[in-house]
Structure to design on (227 residues):
């Protein structure tokens, strides 16, 4: 019999990766004589992927971005980011305690991220967290990615979880839309990477700290979704 499962997004949900993403962005921008990007502006776009971050940086500085230059900067970004992992990235406060609560209650854990699977695994392993997750699925694990609900449902299947007893935890509209399309309740953290407050996207619940992610809350949300 498959077990209940909590599926987490990675960047901006489990781990604050923004400092390292910013470093890699500014490393690549520096080769194009661009002004370094400020952290406060950057965090709202940190979850959109390297290509979008580069595009937004050029748009903010009102500079044209040729396709070839975009590709060059994207490659530099990835090389720098991969070589410096985990860098300054850290799990958010309360993450490990929350994971242990759910493990003790018999839940499986998995990660469903639009980071590449290789980078996701490397980061989670470098932070000493890989043993907690029955599956780590990235943008290239399947032929589809969030917000396609199959990215979530196939992650659950790969982890041998029960889709009827599943909960998603994320920080963005993409995560919320994915879970809704899959018919799975979703808890949104309000400290992640989004340019609009997550409550606007109507998740099942919003939390401000992982101390609020409890087993009773998960069971209540799962039961309500199946009622």
């Amino acid at each position: 019999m498959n077990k209940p499962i909590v599926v987490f997004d990675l960047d901006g949900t489990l781990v604050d990766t923004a400092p390292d993403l910013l470093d890699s962005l500014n490393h690549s921008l520096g080769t194009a004589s661009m002004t370094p990007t400020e952290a406060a502006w950057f965090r709202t776009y940190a979850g959109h992927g390297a290509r979008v971050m580069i595009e937004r940086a050029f748009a903010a500085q009102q500079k044209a971005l040729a396709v070839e230059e975009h590709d060059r900067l994207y490659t530099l970004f990835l090389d720098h980011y991969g070589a410096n992992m985990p860098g300054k990235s850290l799990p958010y406060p309360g993450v490990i305690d929350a994971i242990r609560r759910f493990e003790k209650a018999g839940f499986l854990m998995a990660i469903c991220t639009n980071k590449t699977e290789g980078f996701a695994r490397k980061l989670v392993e470098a932070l000493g967290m890989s043993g907690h997750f029955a599956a780590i699925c990235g943008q290239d694990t399947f032929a589809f990615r969030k917000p396609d609900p199959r990215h979530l449902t196939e992650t659950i299947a790969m982890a041998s979880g029960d889709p009827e007893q599943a909960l998603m935890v994320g920080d963005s509209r993409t995560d919320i839309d994915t879970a809704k399309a899959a018919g799975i309740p979703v808890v949104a953290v309000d400290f992640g990477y989004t340019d609009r407050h997550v409550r606007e996207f109507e998740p099942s619940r919003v939390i401000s700290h992982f101390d609020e992610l409890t087993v009773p809350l998960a069971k209540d949300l799962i039961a309500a979704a199946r009622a």
